[in-house]
Each structure stands twice: as C-alpha cells, then as structure tokens.
C-alpha cells in the first residue's frame, strides 16, 4: 500500500476513534503498526484527547502489595514460576500488611492491589479465608478501595470477595490467542481463567484484564486482545511489556521497545476511551512513566514503598529502595506533563459511576 493511502486510512480511523465509534480488527492493527513519527504522534494525540475528555487532567495511583510470592504454576515468562529458584519467596504477616496499607493510604494512593502467586498452601487446599479477611480488613478498617490479584480462584471465593465489598478482581489472560496462552501459561485453561473474570463481573466487581507484549504474539493478536477486552467489558485494560527474567526459559528473549508499549496503550485508549488504562512502574521503572502517560494511560500502578521488604513482579526491585516508586517519587513526572494526581473522592466517584 502507498504511504499516502495508509495516512488517509489512519486519519479515518482516528476520526472514528474521536467520535467514539467502534474500531475494527484491521483498524486496530493499523494503529499498532504505525512507525512513521508523524503518524505515531497523531495516534498519541488522539489517545490523550480521549483521556482528557473522560478524565480531565487527573491520574489515579495504585499501591502494590505483593503479599505472597509462592506459586504452584510455571508460567514461562514469570520470575515467580514454581521451578525458578532465584526469587525471594515470602508470605507477609496479616498485621504487617494492614500496617503497610495504612501507610499507603496516608501517602495518598487511591487503591491497594493485593497480589499473590497461586500459593499451593492457599490454592490447592482452598484455604482462602485469610486472604478474604485480609482484603476485607483493608477495605473496611483501613478504608481504602481494594483490588485482589489472586490468580484463578473458585466461584465461592469471588462471591465472598464481592460480599465483603472488594472493588476489583484483576486477572490477565496475557494473550487472547488460546494457542499462545497454552504455551505461556503451561497446564492452565484459557476458558477457566476468562470465566472467573466474567463471574466476578456478574457478582458486581470491577474487572481488569491484560495482555503482555513480546511473548510471541503477532500484531493481529495484540489487536484481538484489545478488542476482546472490550467485548467482555473490562473496567481496566492493561498492556504490559514483557521483562525477561533470570532463571526462566524466556530469560534471553529480547523485550519489546518503549514505542511498542506506547502504541499498545494508545490503541487501547482508542478502543476503551472511558476506561482505566495502567502505566505500570514495573516495566521501565519511573523512567517509563511519562511515555505511558503521553500515550493515554491514566493510572499509575505498582507503587512499592521502600523498606517494606515487598517485591514488584516484572521488575522486582527497580527504583524501589531509592524511594522512587512512591507517590512523592513520581509526582514530579506527572506535574511536568500538566497532569495531576486525583483526589480519593474523585476515584471513588469514578468507581461509583462505573458500577452503575
Ligand atoms: N499470580 C497471579 C496471576 O498470575 O494472575 C497474580 C500475580 S502475576 C505475577 C501478575 C501479572 O504480572 C501477570 O498476569 C503478568 O501479566 C505480569 N507479569 C508476570 N511476569 C512478567 C514479566 N516477566 N514481564 C511483564 N509482566 C509480567
Ligand atoms: C503492576 N506489578 O501493576 C503489578 C501487577 C497485578 N494486579 C499488577 C502486574 O504492574
Ligand atoms: Fe504464578 Fe502468576 Fe507468576 Fe504465573 S504469573 S507463575 S500464576 S505468579
């Protein structure tokens, strides 16, 4: 195709996105494939305009609590896969997590993301009581919105989370290509993982799904993921560059570029104009924040406070002990772009509206 006809096509797609019409698979593929700088900038401009239309200058921020790093699974890309001997394996005390949650709330984050590996002591034995009660204590006693990221859990656990008022259930397919899924999430079932999210939605929880970039997917897979997340009606849609992990089979797989991350976020914004889109500090550290915000992201995730002994996921330690992955540490990067950190009230208002 002639470059001028690509441009006409692109501008038609961007027009459609601006008027919030649905984009086709081919449209999203084209957006993800632009490489010429002018085209890239026009995509990012539209992504930011849509974000501004729905969220103004406000950015939300999530505190990350990796509560338990034990895992029964062997996901190819993950540092914490069962067979990796390298990562720190720990499970935090209940009291410590509560104390930390108070600290995070005081620091001004809008939500606490309580995350765990599929710890066999919890998952195989169906001993979910502690995590339910932990999430519920953070929600009611600490009094802050809670996201749980516990992996695949049985329906009764979802039901209890929802009855305890837990706001979010996060669980990422990584890819919406079932064949690739089964290569990455070895011995796990695509539909089971998807259906837990749908259950959580049925029970009234907000849901997050996500795709990984650079794990063997094609551009068409990426576009399909963005549209699948739309189809299932996620409230938060993530794309995250794969970060190679020592001691795993994908240790030497080269990770995608910042540009690919930016375009994935921007394309996600075009398809999900009024949803939350994370800019994770877990990929490129604080230096990756501005490119992601320039691409239409509106939630900073994976804030980890120093001296807490807590790990990140993809970048377990990057910028943590320097205190850069804190709200104070990132606020400068946000203000520099003319954006501001939202108030708790504003986040609560968004969640309330989203549930209606
Ligand atoms: N164990 C739970 C699960 O798998 O759903 C929750 C925690 S898991 C570590 C959270 C997410 O981190 C994964 O779904 C994946 O998207 C992301 N992640 C894991 N390893 C990664 C890597 N090497 N690079 C980028 N993201 C990664
Ligand atoms: C993040 N490391 O926000 C976290 C994690 C789990 N809900 C989120 C992938 O990047
Ligand atoms: Fe375990 Fe989650 Fe890592 Fe998979 S992604 S190995 S389920 S911690």
Q: N- to C-terminal separation?
A: 45 Å
Q: Biggest sheet: strands, sense, closure? A: 9 strands, parallel
CATH class: Alpha Beta
Architecture per CATH nomenclature, i.e. the level-2 architecture: Alpha-Beta Barrel
Describe the structure.
With 356 residues, the chain is an alpha/beta fold. It has a single domain (3-355), classed as Aldolase class I (TIM Barrel, Alpha-Beta Barrel). Helices cover 46% and strands 13% of the residues. The chain is built from 15 helices and nine strands. Strand 1, helix 4 and strand 2 (111-116) form a beta-alpha-beta unit. Helix 1 (3-18) packs parallel to helix 3 (37-55), helix 2 (25-33) crosses helix 10 and helix 3 crosses helix 11 (258-271). The longest helix is centred in the N-terminal third of the chain and has 19 residues, at 37-55. The chain is globular, with a radius of gyration of 19 Å. The protein starts with a helix and ends with a helix. Residues 71, 73, 75, 78, 80-81, 117-118, 151 line the site of iron/sulfur cluster.
